[in-house]
Design a protein that fits this description.
The complex is a heterotrimer of chains A (about 220), B (about 190) and C (about 230). Chain B is about 75% helix and about 0% strand. By secondary structure, chain B is mainly α. Chain B is globular. Chain C starts with a helix and ends with a helix. Classes of the chains: A mainly alpha (about 220), B mainly alpha (about 190), C alpha+beta (about 230).
């Protein structure tokens, strides 16, 4: 690994390889709670993106002025401000979606992904790189929410973004829009990712991985 | 009285914070490996929820009517400070209790379950006692979910888990099944 | 999982630490006034931003809430020409809100174009199958009949319990039955004037809706009549 990530890496790694939700398991609560439709997932993703982007901008701009001792309080203050703004703006512009997301908009404040990016990246890097990082991570978060939302809406309502995709005889798989469906969906996505990861390993080093499994099984 | 009981049971099982609102998933995934740790985590949660509930009630009754737009900021700051102060007080007064709960307290302050509880309590306009019933119900529910999960995971150590399901995947699927089982509590208290 | 997350985080942070390494001018001793100044400045900025956005968005939010209320009242009172807002205070209805006290309840009294009263719109909430069901219903106190019902918010099971708001046949059951309402299973209906057919598979949700209306009328009914007598 190079000593310093290139700007391209800073931008793209959050999207898939270090996806905040699917790989790092951050921000799980909104990712499971409001993804019963694609539109709700997208709205939550965009609101989080907005908060992450603005917070990174402020934190990286003032990174040299914020003393170590009060940095966490300052970050939380900054994040809470933008969440309040996002909350009020959503309520004014799209009240229906605001009602569907409910208290989970306020909970963006405690989304560890946002505080984590401030602490790990924005407080140590230039404004430009911090914004690249924020955009990359934010897009990664939106991708994860859209994926969850698409799976759950297609199975649970039989629609995609509100458009029916099966015939009239489709009996919706209601469990997928209920809370258990959220757990099952992310569980199955992780299964698929693990399977894919292992297949890649096996192809890269034939023979080696099965051997390791055998050892693990025996132990 | 019946009202308080309904609030408690609703928050504990019918609308369990972890299994229905996906709150407090970080500790749920992180410390649900052993029943002993899970119990302590649950106790610490109940404690912080109680402090947060009192703070939220105070803010909601005396401060927010004058400045509704400060709701989120005041909640997060006041709850975090209150927990920090209580933590220091416990450390002084009862080192034993501090050792039991200590390391979990700072973790919990940023836990989404706390903020959700305070936020919902304020939105529903609960009074002081209703707020406490809600907080304790939520805490009992979190503890119940944590302990259930931990006891399943302790037994999981002795079973053959498919290679690709190891790690988080199996935990999520078990959580899904638990959540499904908890759906059976719906309708428990309606007349 | 937390292990994986932390691992990733470290890998990512470590290589960059030297590059962006904050100059860390005085890591040992930062004067207290600087800490206070930082927090104060951040707080002031936050307050300014929030108040500004609040001023901009609040009119729209209020307008939307007023519109939703107007829609709900018109629906359950069959589009009255206008209505008065009445406050429940110390066991009676009053048109002037009590000063400084939160009213226990508010009801709306609708009038037709020619000034004839249509009825009261009353809200209520009780625990249903999953969580609270909140609804508004129209009530004609002179004939003791329900005029209409609309669910304002509920979290009932999609496909079963949520029929209380989405099943138009069930909602239509509340156009004209006498009170106190009596919920019956469709097969056992006798055609009595106070019967409401419940939804198959959502008995608890249906019963809650009926219960909310009955309980609210038990409590408020005498006050509504007293108010009408006084007014006429």
């Amino acid at each position: 690994m190079p000593r310093k990530a290139t700007s391209g890496q800073v931008f793209t790694r959050g999207m898939w390889r270090e996806n905040p939700v699917l790989i790092q398991m951050l921000g799980l609560c909104p990712a499971l709670a409001v993804t019963n439709t694609v539109v709700n997932g997208l709205a939550m993703g965009l609101a989080t993106f907005f908060v992450l982007f603005c917070s990174s901008l402020l934190v990286s701009t003032f990174r040299k002025l914020i003393p170590q001792e009060v940095r966490i309080s300052t970050y939380i203050l900054i994040i809470a401000t933008f969440v309040t703004i996002a909350d009020m703006t959503l309520e004014a512009m799209v009240p229906e979606i605001h009602k569907a997301l409910g208290a989970f908009i306020a909970l963006i404040v405690v989304n560890c992904m946002i505080l984590g990016r401030q602490e790990a990246f924005a407080s140590k890097n230039t404004v430009g790189r911090s914004l690249l990082d924020a955009v990359g991570t934010g897009i990664g978060f939106i991708i994860a929410l859209l994926l969850m939302g698409a799976i759950r809406e297609v199975l649970g309502y039989g629609t995609f973004v509100g458009i029916p995709i099966y015939g009239a005889n489709y009996e919706p798989w209601i469990i997928f829009i209920l809370p258990p469906g959220g757990f099952f969906t992310i569980g199955f996505i992780l299964l698929a990712l693990n399977w894919w990861e292992r297949r890649k390993l096996e192809r890269a080093r034939p023979g080696e991985v099965p051997g390791r499994i055998a050892v693990e099984r025996a132990a | 009285m019946g009202d308080l009981f309904w609030i408690f049971i609703s928050a504990m099982v019918v609308n369990n914070f972890t299994l229905f609102y996906f709150l407090g998933l970080c500790p749920f995934m992180g410390v649900s490996g052993r029943v002993y740790t899970a119990l302590r985590m649950g106790a610490a949660n109940i404690f912080v929820l109680t402090v947060a509930s009192i703070c939220a009630w105070f803010l909601n009754a005396f401060v927010l009517p004058y400045a509704p737009y400060l709701k989120l900021i005041s909640f997060i700051l006041v709850i975090a400070s209150a927990v920090q102060i209580t933590e220091m007080t416990i450390k002084k007064l009862s080192p034993a209790l501090f050792r039991a709960l200590g390391i979990y307290l700072p973790l919990i302050t940023t836990n989404c379950a706390i903020l959700f509880m305070a936020w919902t309590q304020a939105n529903r306009g609960y009074n002081f006692f209703q707020g406490l019933a809600f907080a304790w119900g939520a805490g009992a529910g979190l503890t119940l979910a944590l302990v259930l999960m931990a006891s399943i995971r302790e037994n999981l150590l002795f079973s053959k888990v498919p290679e690709i399901a190891k790690g988080n995947a199996i935990v999520f699927i078990i959580a899904g099944i638990l959540s499904l089982a908890f759906m059976g509590f719906a309708g428990l208290l309606s007349t | 999982m937390s292990g994986a997350g932390a691992g990733n985080g470290e890998k990512r942070v470590l290589p960059q630490a030297p590059e962006g390494a904050p100059p860390a001018p005085e890591p040992k001793e930062v004067p207290a006034w600087r800490l206070l100044l930082t927090l104060g400045a951040a707080g002031a900025l936050a307050g300014l931003l929030i108040v500004f956005v609040y001023q901009v968005t609040q009119p729209r939010i209020q307008a939307y809430k007023a519109m939703m209320l107007r829609l709900a009242v018109s629906e359950v009172l069959r589009a009255p020409a206008r209505w008065d807002t009445l406050y429940v205070y110390e066991g009676a209805l009053t048109a002037t809100p009590p000063e400084g006290v939160v009213a226990e309840d508010t009801v709306f009294l609708g009038y037709r174009e020619d000034g004839i009263r249509v009825g009261f719109a009353i809200t209520g909430a009780e625990p249903g199958f999953q969580d609270f069901i909140e609804l508004i219903f129209g009530y004609d106190a002179e004939t003791s009949t329900v005029i209409g019902m609309k669910v304002l918010s509920s979290k009932e099971t999609p496909g079963l319990g949520d029929k209380i708001e989405k099943d138009s046949a069930f909602v239509a059951e509340f156009e004209g039955p006498e009170v106190p309402l009596q919920g019956v299973k469709a097969a056992r209906a006798t055609g009595a004037a106070n019967e409401v057919d419940m939804i198959t598979g959502a008995t608890i949700s249906s019963r809650t809706v009926i219960g909310i209306i009955n309980h609210q009328l038990e409590r408020l009914g005498p006050m509504l009549e007293a108010y009408l007598e006084e007014a006429s």
